[in-house]
Amino acid sequence: MQRLYDFLRRHPTGVDTFWAVVLLGFSLLWVGSTYPAADHPVAAGAVGVLFSLVVALRRRAPEKMLLLAVALGVFQLVFGLVPFVADFAMLVIIFTVAAHDGPRWASRLALVGGLCAATLSQLRWPMEETDSGAAKIFFTVIMTVPFALAWVLGDSLRTRRAYFAQLEERASRLEKEREAQAKVAVAAERARIARELHDVVAHNVSVMVVQADGAAYVMDSSPETAKQALETISTTGRQALAEMRRLLGILRTGEHQEAGEYVPQPDVQQIEDLVEQVRGAGLTVDFAIEGSPRPLPSGVELTAYRIVQEALTNTRKHGGPDVGASVRLVYFDDGLGLLVEDDGRGAPQEMYEDGGADGRGHGLIGMRERVGMVGGTLDAGPRPGGGFRISALLPLKSAH
């Protein structure tokens, strides 16, 4: 059934032609059975054919078919061809022109012609003389109603289509603006991440330089200490190389920093300090660590800190009064798990749909970018029973 409906929508002229053939058949039967030879049956048949053409081509050339229908109506009035079945095409073309998004003169002409059709017909072919004037007026009004109704329905359909087209255009424009806003936020967040990772790499290089100087100083007197320093250099260098690989393809913008101004970025150990700071601001936070804490790559530690920081910020912004939160850090053999939950009202739906672009802030976009750069996964959304949940898994080795 749906295929048939789609086929009919793709071939509107074919549908109109079918109904035109039906109208022509009834018109010719009417002419053959009703018109006597003295009443121009040939002319009536020709009018029936042309009115059928009006129906067949009403959507291809509505204005031209309206003019043809008006000409046929005038022809009937002049030559005294009594209205018959083919005149139904007038209602069809009036509806079509009113519904068509074309020139307004055509719609106005269809309305005026429809309102005058019944009156002109009554004047040309009056009712019986025995009928009262009130009966004649009532009959004329009744015959005018279908023409007026056809125009009103068509104009309403045109207005409805224009309204929906405007809504679709507005929705499309808002969607494009939202995408552009999200892209700008992603670019800004990547630039900020690039600056932070640059600081991490610089810190690691500084550590390597210090360890190398120490190893050179104790090389002769304490070979074991020098060996440990070289191992530290090796580990730190690998971490720095991993961070530099993540920087590829990211355009770094921002202030140039002088050597010696680099400060180590926040790490996992400072999350507890962050929680205490948030508690001091009035938010109840339960903090726990599971597993065996151990040193992690600098990028992973920075990402974990920023996720907890942003999650607690969202809790304070969207959780409502008397909200409580919990922070869990879980050390696995191959990664670090984070779980931040609250029992508040939860963030608006726009905060976690489509990457977290809500038009007011882009915290979740930043989280996803950070987690993606270290090869991890992030899940954010409403918590069963109320509140909001953010969980992340950060692997110790970055995805290649």
UniProtKB/TrEMBL annotation:
Signal peptide: none annotated. The chain crosses the membrane at residues 12-32, 38-57, 66-99, 137-154. Residues 200-398 form the Histidine kinase domain. Keywords: ATP-binding, Kinase, Membrane, Nucleotide-binding, Phosphoprotein, Transferase, Transmembrane, Transmembrane helix, Two-component regulatory system. It catalyses: ATP + protein L-histidine = ADP + protein N-phospho-L-histidine. Its EC number is 2.7.13.3. This is histidine kinase. It comes from Streptomyces viridochromogenes.
